[in-house]
Amino acid sequence: METGAFRARPSTAPRPTRVPCIAITTGEPAGVGPELCARIAARHGDGELVLLGDRELLLERAGPEGAALLSRPGVRLEHLPLARPSVAGRLDVANAPYVLGLLDRALAGARAGEFDALVTAPVQKSLISEAGVPFTGHTEYLAERLGCTRPVMMLVAGSLRVALATTHLPLRAVSAALSVEGLGETLTVLDHDLRRLWGLARPRIAICGLNPHAGEGGHLGDEELRVIGPAIEAARSRGVDASGPLPADTVFVPRTLARFDAVLAMYHDQGLPVLKHAGFGHAVNITLGLPIVRTSVDHGTALDLAGTGQADAGSLDAAVELAFEIVRRSS
Prior knowledge:
single chain, 331 residues, alpha/beta, Isopropylmalate Dehydrogenase, 13 helices, 11 strands
C-alpha cells in the first residue's frame, strides 16, 4: 500500500444548487403593475426576485410598509428612473420610453445569464404606439428583440393551456394571416416547448378550426381544407401529436379537453374567453419560442384600480410561481 497518500471519500452531502433569479418588469407606471409587484415581493420565498422600476414609485405604491417589503431577503430593487413623476390612473406619454427601457434591461440580463426568467407586469400598448414606437404587445416586442421569427402566445390556467396561431390582429385579417407553413412552425414551437418547459414526453395538441363547425367540409369556409388540415398532416409527419381541425365550440368541453395537453386556437378571442372564464385573475401568459423564459399576467393595466389597493395580485403571483417552477424543472 502506498504510504503518505490520502484518498478522499466521496461526499454524501447534497450538492448546493443555485438559487433561481427572476426579473420582474413593473410595467406601466400609471397602472396597477407597480403596486402588484410590491405586493408579490412581500410574500414570495422561492428564490431571488429583482424588481426593475423607479424606486420612489414602487415605495409610494407599496404603501406604509413599502420600504420593509422591498428590502426582504431575496428581493432586490434595481432603480430605473421615470422620465416624469407618475400619477396613478393617469397615462403620460413621456414615460413610454421608461416602460420599454424596463423590458430592454430585463432582456439584456436574461441574455447574459443574470436572470433565469422574466416576468412582465402589464403595459399600455396604445401609449407606446402614441410615443412613436409601433407596439402590438410584449410577445411581438420580445421576439423582435431576440431575433425570433415564430413566437407563440399561450395562456395557462391550471391544467388548461391555450395557445394562439395569431395574436393581436383585427378579425378580418385572421384568415389571410394563416398559412400551412406558419401553422406548421407554430405547432413545432408548441410541441417543442411543451416538452422543454413542462417535461411532457409526447404532448397531445388539439387544433381548432377557424370557421363554425370547423367549416363543415367546406360549406362554411375552406380554410380547414386549404390550410389547417394540411398543416396538421405535415406536423404529424414530423412526429407532432396533433389532432383536428376540431370545432372550437366543442373542443373546450371537459370530456374532450381531458384527451389533450394543449389547445391551439386560430385567433385571440376564439380561445382566450374560455381560458379567462376558467381562471381569470389566476391565469398566466407565457411566450413560447423564445430562448428565455417569459411569463406575464392575464390582464391589462387596470387604470381605474391603480393606487386603490383593490387590484388582485393573483395572476402576477401565478406568473412568478410558474416562472420559478419552469426554471427549477429545466435546471
